[in-house]
Specification:
Strand order of the largest sheet: 3-2-1-4-5-10-9
Shape: globular
Distance between the termini: 32 Å
Helix content: 25-40%
CATH topology: Rossmann fold
Radius of gyration: 17 Å
Number of domains: 1
Strand content: 25-35%
Oligomer: single chain
Length: 228
């Protein structure tokens, strides 16, 4: 585990202790469910594994729509909130180290309908992403879905890059709303099929918003793949 990853994990633990975390699911994941899982793939049930599940807002959404939640996060505080939110599935939530862990020790292989990695993989190196993707491929059943987002260079964070450290860019955020240092593994759209193989690409979309003038767009890529 690098110093950059340890710093990011500590920052998020402090944020969760201070009340950070989604209460409602993000709109792009609701659309993913409605437009791809439900409409295109006719997928309306099965276990879902959320890598970087946070306080559980997205897993709770999937639970409310017929899925069984599993998840992990580096934040002990966030995982405890998951267990409180979904007590009947408390044993399905795990704390993992910032560089990831062997997910195959946490959940049954070959049976997950969906593996979700939303806004988390860009805190890992390419090598670590490859390891998590390989484990996800073992966890997901044939025909199962892999979903991951990566931060795009068109995100306003890329304007704040001050240095490089391996696969990471050092991002110094200074705005009226945010003052912090982050280490981000940015990606271009055409890098995603290779990054997420052996999952077969189904869709590569994007999402983001531009709320404050001085900040800019929060652009992310959204990769959806299938295990053949």
């Amino acid at each position: 585990m690098s110093g950059e990853q340890q710093q990011s994990a500590q920052q998020y633990e402090e944020k969760y202790k201070g009340g950070y975390g989604l209460v409602y699911p993000e709109s792009h994941l609701i659309r993913l469910h409605r437009h791809i899982l439900e409409w295109e793939l006719h997928l309306d049930s099965g276990p879902v594994f959320d890598f970087g599940c946070g306080a559980g807002a997205h897993l709770k959404y999937f639970l409310d729509h017929g899925f069984t939640p599993y998840g992990c996060d580096t934040s002990t505080t966030a995982v405890e909130r998951c267990k409180t939110l979904m007590p009947e599935h408390a044993r399905n939530f795990f704390v993992v180290p910032p560089s990831g862990s062997n997910l195959l020790d946490l959940a049954p292989t070959g049976r997950f309908a969906v593996f979700l990695a939303n806004q988390v993989l860009y805190y890992l190196t390419d090598e670590e992403i490859g390891r998590i993707v390989g484990q996800a491929h073992s966890l997901v059943r044939p025909g199962g879905v892999f979903v991951a987002s990566m931060m795009a260079y068109s995100c306003w964070y890329a304007r704040c890059v001050t240095a490089e450290a391996g696969d990471f860019k050092r991002v110094e955020l200074v705005s009226p709303r945010q003052q912090e240092t982050m280490f981000i593994n940015f990606k271009n759209r055409d890098e995603l099929p290779h990054l997420f193989r052996p999952f077969r690409r189904l869709h590569i979309g994007s999402y983001g918003s531009h709320i404050r003038d001085e900040e800019g767009s929060t652009d992310h890529w959204l990769f959806v793949g299938i295990r053949d």
